[in-house]
Write a structure and sequence with these properties.
This protein is of the alpha/beta class. It is 32% helix and 21% strand. Strand 11 and strand 12 form a beta hairpin. Helix 4 packs across helix 5 and helix 14 packs across helix 18.
């Protein structure tokens, strides 16, 4: 898929971009011509795995490769490859493209990144870039469509040559949709260009295993893993600076002191980290790597790229250098030993954050020690699917009283300890009642005292609770009945209370525990609700936090009293597998779990209050009593 850097190829001629020739490939073009949104050029030495021999850039250039699959941890340049490929074709081979995500925000974000990055290229029509629609960029003979999985209409009626499906493991078919699966619809966009199409599928993986669809057919939980295993399944092999043993990195060999070589057993410290990672080459599943030849191939690739991009276009030396950059498949790689398990038109790759040069060995080791058993670490750091163990049945009638004995404190109902710096009231709204909880948190937010909890029947009773306990922050669940909750929060803000709505959300949409949003309506940001923010809470991470808190039992205390029923509610949630993701459901439908939600929201409310108080000039308005 190499082409020259002369004049723009017209849309009717874009197939020439896929004819092999010792011309400009994606790696060289990205280094020469691509900058990110801040205007910084592509630093290939910071992402050596993208330009290494046999890697994603080589697969993009190869005329026989139709699909590229990137199963990688976060912050390893997956999306950047997608954008570089888009801008490369936009410059040298104008065509139709489709960039798709799991939700509209991601699709729009990618389109906006193309718009911004393209504006730095003097060969592009900047007027066309800036005046194009948000969902469809049209410039220099290109049309780039933005699409997303939950809107089948955006995946329809597009004839594309190039496209990318981003965060594929988060793609879901809307249960009420009459359209086919969105992944299938995406792939169908390229049927008219089948001999020359180029598709990229990229994602952080999610869960292992299979599930039964609506037709009782087994489907993989991880779309990206299924595609990776259907391809060459390449791993990145790096060479020890001491014994030169070639190896694929594993988390078990990482410590705060460095990486323990699986050959000589020496620890490779941080001062060798960059050269260690930059020595990498790719090899498909079923193959090994010859150390001497891999050293030579990795060294030559980076040296030739550096020299090539130093030279001016038209320099006579470029033809010879570009021919040395050309990749002709695994059979032509002299460092590869053995026979690939699979070959063909699908090149696939897996990579963990152990290869991320933005991270130190110490940082990786600390994260592994702290969170190594969590789904977030396995997915986001190791780039692997997570095996969810089905929970064993819990006898709440036994576990509830046991927990009560362990966490019952000495303070009476309604009393907070002196160390409680952040006092919050959380309300998990139900159809007829308002279950509530008052909790106090220490400065570090690693200890909590539940001072009191209960349920009331009206907003007036909630007002009275606020007057009695004077919480610094109030969060009410708005997932069930939204408008009344929003109206109450606006009124409370007007009365001087720090009240906001809260709502559970998927981990993909809230990377950390919570994220604050302005309230929107069909016209954009809502003027009616401008005084409040909706806090979206990462259900998965906060559920895991509560589970660990209750298992350790060291940093949570509850008032001294009858708390068995409260403890049953705190325990009455378990993680179960449903289709492509895991969800949290009540263990016993006869018991509520509202107070567990209130504890999760309390954790978020305390974080939010701490964040607010850290802002310069933050003051709550003067409270005033409301006429009842």
């Amino acid at each position: 898929m190499r082409t020259g850097e002369s004049e723009l190829i017209q849309p009717t001629d874009y197939s020439h971009a896929f004819e092999p020739a010792p011309e400009v490939g994606l790696a060289e073009h990205s280094i020469r011509c691509i900058v990110n949104e801040e205007g910084r050029p592509f630093d290939f030495l910071a992402f050596p795995h993208l330009v290494a021999v046999g890697g994603p850039c080589d697969a993009f250039d190869a005329d026989w490769v139709r699909e590229i699959v990137l199963q990688m941890a976060s912050r390893l340049g997956k999306t950047f490859v997608v954008l570089c490929g888009s801008l490369y074709l936009a410059e040298v081979a104008a065509c139709n493209q489709v960039l798709a995500g799991h939700v509209q925000d991601l699709a729009m974000q990618q389109a906006e990144r193309i718009r911004t990055m393209g504006s730095y290229n003097p060969k592009f029509d900047n007027t066309g870039l800036q005046t194009s629609q948000k969902k469809r960029l049209e410039f220099n003979g290109n049309t780039i469509h933005a699409a997303w999985a939950r809107s089948p209409g955006t995946l329809s009626n597009i004839n594309a040559l190039y496209g990318a499906a981003s965060e594929l493991d988060l793609w879901e078919r809307v249960s009420t949709s009459r359209h086919p699966d969105p992944e299938q619809m995406f792939g169908d966009r390229f049927k008219d260009n089948d001999p020359i199409r180029k598709e990229i599928y990229e994602s952080i993986p999610t869960l292992q295993g299979v599930y039964l669809d609506e037709h009782n057919q087994e489907r993989p939980r991880s779309r990206i893993e299924a595609r990776r295993l259907n391809g060459t399944d390449c791993a990145f092999w790096v060479g020890c600076p001491f014994c030169r043993q070639r190896q694929v990195l594993t988390i078990e060999r990482v410590s705060i002191h460095g990486y323990q070589c699986n050959g000589c057993e020496k620890t490779i410290p941080s001062e060798y980290r960059k050269s260690f990672i930059r020595s990498g080459v790719w090899a498909p599943a079923g193959c090994g790597v010859d150390a001497d030849r891999a050293d030579a191939a990795a060294t030559e690739r980076l040296a030739v790229l550096a020299r090539t991009t130093e030279l001016d276009a038209g320099d006579l030396e470029l033809d010879e250098l570009r021919s040395r950059l050309e990749w002709n498949g695994w059979s032509d790689c002299d460092y590869v030993t053995g026979t690939p398990h699979k070959s063909g038109s699908v090149e696939s790759y897996q990579l963990s954050s152990l290869y991320a040069l933005s991270l130190s060995w110490e940082r990786i080791a600390e994260e592994f020690e702290k969170n190594g058993a969590t789904q977030n670490f396995v997915n986001q750091w190791l780039g692997q699917t997570f095996e969810v163990q089905e929970s064993h049945a819990v006898d709440l009638d036994v576990a509830g009283p046991e927990l009560a004995e362990a966490i019952r404190g000495e303070l009476p109902f309604g009393t907070l300890p002196e160390w409680a710096k952040y006092v919050v009231l959380t309300i998990d709204r139900q159809k007829r009642t308002f279950p509530w909880m008052l909790s106090g948190w220490n400065e570090a937010l690693d200890a909590v005292h539940v001072a009191c909890a209960g349920a009331v029947l009206s907003f007036d009773e909630l007002d009275a609770l606020c007057e009695k306990h004077a919480p610094g922050a109030i969060l009410m669940d708005c997932g069930y009945i939204q408008k009344d909750t929003l109206d109450w929060c606006v009124q409370m803000q007007a009365d001087g209370w720090n009240a906001n709505p809260v709502k559970g959300a998927k981990a993909a949409n809230v990377p950390n525990h919570w994220k604050a949003y302005r309230i929107e309506d069909e016209f954009g940001y809502s003027a009616e609700y401008a005084a409040i923010q909706r806090l979206d809470v990462n259900t998965q991470s906060t559920q895991e936090w509560v589970t660990e808190l209750l298992e350790q039992r060291k940093t949570i205390r509850v008032w001294d009293g009858k708390i068995n029923s409260l403890c049953v509610e705190l325990l009455n949630d378990t993680e179960t597998l449903k289709q492509r993701s895991s969800t949290w459901d009540r263990i016993d439908r006869q018991h509520p779990n509202d107070q567990r939600d209130n504890l999760r929201y309390g954790f978020v409310a305390a974080q939010y209050l701490k964040h607010q108080q850290s802002q310069i000039g933050f003051n709550l308005p003067q409270r005033r009593r409301r006429e009842r």
